[in-house]
Amino acid sequence: MSQFLPAAILDQIKLADASWRPTLLTGLDAVSKVDPAYLPALAKDAYLPSGGRLFAAFAQPLDAVRYVLIGEGPYPRPESATGVCFMDGAVGSLWSDKGLSKQVNRATSLRNFMKMLLVADGQLKPEATSGDAMTAIAIKARAIGSPLIQTLSELQANLTKHGFLLLNASLAYRSHMPPIKDAKAWQPFLQVVLDALADRADPVKESPPTLVLWGKVAGLLSELPANVRFPKAISEHPYNLSFIASPIMQALFGPMRLLQR
User: Fold this and answer.
1) Contact at 8 Å (CB) between 61 and 17?
2) Cα–Cα distance for residue pair 137/100, rounded to 1 Å
3) Is there a single domain that holds both residue 20 and residue 141?
4) pTM of the entire structure?
5) Rounded CA separation 48/51 (Å)
6) CA distances from 215 to 55, 154, 158, 229 (A)
7) What would the pLDDT profile of 89-142 be if each residue is shown by its tens digit?
8) What is the mean pLDDT of the chain?
9) Beta strands 210-214; 67-71: pairing state
């Protein structure tokens, strides 16, 4: 059926690693079988991410995936939506002279994720993650020869090195469409992707990748049959301040030392 899929959608698969391309085609076919009108309508519509980045998350080779961090959907701003879950394209530098950069502080979830990493790394205490404590961290981070990463792209690179597939449950966002409708339309695609990851794992030598689920995404995934095939790390969404002290997230991310160069 892929030959009947919109060329404007198919052309974007070229941004994905070659190991993913057959799976992506199968996933798109699955979407079309459930709703033949969805992808043709999307191709003619204005949606995010723009710039051909619908499948940008799949630059991570299939065999390299160890964790799947699943977000709800693309950011609703053109400058922020990159096609990669949680990576806000509007954020450059991570630090300012007083703590986290203005760009990071505006991105509430990213701000709390950064603070959780600093707590997990022993650089902050969970009861003191602002004010003078953050100023001291920023001075260290911005010093010449600092061991800490400086930009969001470096954080993304570290996540990639640890085997993260940074995927949204809905690959597209449209301002005039309730996000839950797009998310529902992409569920057959997500099922195919998850099955491919589970099938790839050697049942004797390794388990499937760990699904990292924040907030409502856990509910979205519970509707998919493939959901039961994976180990999971589940917490509240990082939009919540309580995420900073999440023991589950600290245990998962702490050993990775993602803020280190």
Assistant:
1) yes
2) 9
3) no
4) 0.94
5) 9
6) 23, 25, 23, 20
7) 999 999 999 999 999 999 999 999 999 999 999 999 999 999 999 999 999 999
8) 94
9) parallel
- Greatest Cα pair distance, the chain, in angstroms, is 59
Our count of domains for the chain comes to 2
What's the CA gap between 122 and 224, in Å, rounded?
A: 37
CATH number at residue 65: 3.40.470.10
Number of CB atoms found within 10 A of residue 58's CB: 25
Residue 206 in this model has a pLDDT that exceeds 90: no
Residues 107 and 77 in one domain: no
Residue 7 and residue 77 in one domain: yes
pLDDT given at position 13: 96
Q: How far apart are CA 34 and CA 91, in angstroms?
A: 37
Provide the pairing of β-strand 99-100 with 95-96. antiparallel
Distance CA 189, CA 39 (A): 12
- Residue span of the structural domain in which 108 resides: 93-149+244-261
The predicted pLDDT at position 16 comes to 97
Token reading at 28: 């798109």
Q: What is the distance between the alpha carbons of residues 23 and 241, in angstroms, rounded to a whole number? A: 37
**Structure tokens, 237:** 């969404």
Query: Please, are residues 138 and 99 in contact by the beta-carbon 8 Å criterion?
Result: yes
What pLDDT, in 10s, does the model give residues 156-193? Answer: 999 999 999 999 999 999 999 999 999 999 999 999 99
